[in-house]
Specification:
It is a single chain. It contains 6 helices and 27 strands. The protein is mostly beta strands and about 425 residues long. The two termini are about 35 Å apart. The chain has 2 domains: about 240 residues, Beta Barrel (Cathepsin D, subunit A, domain 1), CATH 2.40.70; about 160 residues, Acid Proteases (Cathepsin D, subunit A, domain 1). The strands form 4 sheets. Strands 14, 15, 16, 17, 20, 21 and 25 form a 7-stranded mixed β-sheet that branches.
């Protein structure tokens, strides 16, 4: 829906990310949007309201992904900021002296972006805008810098006063961000994990057409494109990272985001791997090939297996005909009847009784059979009311974060594979 512009870290020594040698492997805590540890936590909301809100955020986000896929203007990297986007948050500290910010950890984008002062127009946030003039380590990028030249031609220009690199990014719903590109020190609350010359977008004029929660100030893009934090770290982390997502809502545990060979690699029994598909036309997204889904003993095959794996979308989105066949199998194998008028954001719901038994669910990715628990695919409302956290969509197919809960998910960008290992993420 809205865009955030960010610059690729050029393979140019002037902009090479430098950091302490010991930070080749490190980990960061992630907080679910609706966890009691989250700044967004609202104790007055019922579990049913939290579940509904999560679904609505997913649908809003899927529309933004669809816009970025279908709109030529958005072929360059883009990002999404919550509340209607990603569900897992991380703290970042930017500038010198460092200021704390909550940002979305998002594998569906490849930008680092914050609102900046002076601000011509910004959406409201609870903290002061990042002020580059108050950071002794901020450096603005010039219009003739290598990073600036990597912006799409129609989306950047030279500033009139001092030749700074200015950007403009828009989406189909008229959301936009305008600002300058620069570098500054970014860390994650660990003294020995500081990145002095991170390139990011400093937005001075921003508009987003959705209800805003005032804690979030930006995102940390972890996507496949060359603009992400992962790409900036590059060889230093072996082009590898992983995360382990804890269940949402009432969990007081934090999820873990790990970088580098020593931290991110998963080994042992139960690890399965599938090819990672990177598309030059959509550099922000990680694609997998989903061949089918088994419900109990019944397998449904798909004709279009291209699916985005995304940490920032709660629900899973499947092509409509494939979804319909999948739901038909769920009804048949579980033996339930669909209820009418499901809650907003959900498509298939039923009432569970004492005799209801859930089968195993296996997502068949190329070379990797990933067995999901019922909790990965269903959400429970009051009075034994159950909804499937999978919905149909004819434009964007997404393997969402609920399906990934209690898995270590490793991304090996150099080896071009994604690996899964089931675990208890609250203990990992």
């Amino acid at each position: 829906m809205h865009a955030f512009i960010f610059l690729f870290l050029a393979l140019n020594s002037l902009y090479t990310l430098s950091f302490v040698e010991a930070t080749k492997s490190f980990s960061i805590e992630l907080i679910h949007h609706d966890s009691p540890l989250s700044p967004f936590y609202n104790s007055s909301l019922t579990p049913s309201e939290l579940i509904t809100n999560a679904a609505l955020r997913s649908i809003s986000r899927s529309k933004r992904v669809t816009l970025s896929q279908n709109n030529e203007i958005n072929e360059s990297p883009e990002s999404i900021v919550i509340p209607n986007g990603g569900d897992y948050l991380m703290k970042i500290y930017i500038g010198t002296p460092p200021i704390e910010r909550f940002a979305v950890a998002d594998t569906g984008s490849d930008l680092i972006w914050v609102q900046c002062s002076p601000c011509k127009q910004c959406f409201q946030q609870d903290t002061p805008y990042y002020d580059p003039s108050k950071s002794s380590t901020f450096i603005g990028l010039s219009c003739d810098s290598k990073p600036c030249s990597l912006l799409p031609q129609d989306h950047h220009k030279c500033g009139k006063s001092n030749n700074e690199c200015e950007y403009l990014y828009t989406y189909g719903d008229n959301s936009y961000t305008i600002g300058e590109l620069g570098t500054d020190s970014i860390n994650f609350g660990q003294k020995d994990v500081t990145f002095p010359k991170s390139i990011f977008g400093c937005g001075h004029d921003n508009y987003v057409g959705y209800e805003r929660i005032h804690k979030t100030t930006g995102i940390v893009g972890l996507g496949a494109g060359p603009l992400s934090l992962v790409s900036q770290l590059g060889d230093s982390i072996g082009h590898k990272f992983s995360y382990c997502l804890v269940p949402p809502f009432l969990s007081k545990a934090t999820s873990k985001l790990k970088f580098g060979d020593d931290e991110a690699i998963i080994n042992g029994n139960g690890v399965v791997s599938t090819p990672l598909i990177l598309k030059s036309s959509q550099p922000s997204f990680y694609y997998l090939n989903l061949e089918g889904i088994t419900v109990g003993q019944k397998t449904v095959h798909t004709t279009d297996g291209n699916i985005i794996i995304d940490s920032g979308t709660t629900l899973t989105f499947l092509e409509t005909s494939f979804y319909n066949n999948f739901v038909a199998s769920v009804k048949e194998v579980i033996g339930v009847e669909e209820v009418q008028n499901p809650p907003s954001g959900y498509n298939f719901c039923f009432t569970s009784g004492e005799q209801t038994k859930f089968p195993s669910f296996v997502f068949h990715f190329t070379g990797a059979d990933v067995t999901l628990k019922p909790e990965n695919l269903f959400v429970a409302f009051a009075n034994n009311f159950i909804c499937l956290s999978v919905i149909p969509n004819d434009q964007t197919f997404i393997f969402g974060n609920r399906a990934q809960i209690d898995f270590i998910v490793e991304y090996d960008l150099k080896g071009k594979k994604v690996s899964f290992a089931p675990t208890d993420c609250s203990k990992n």
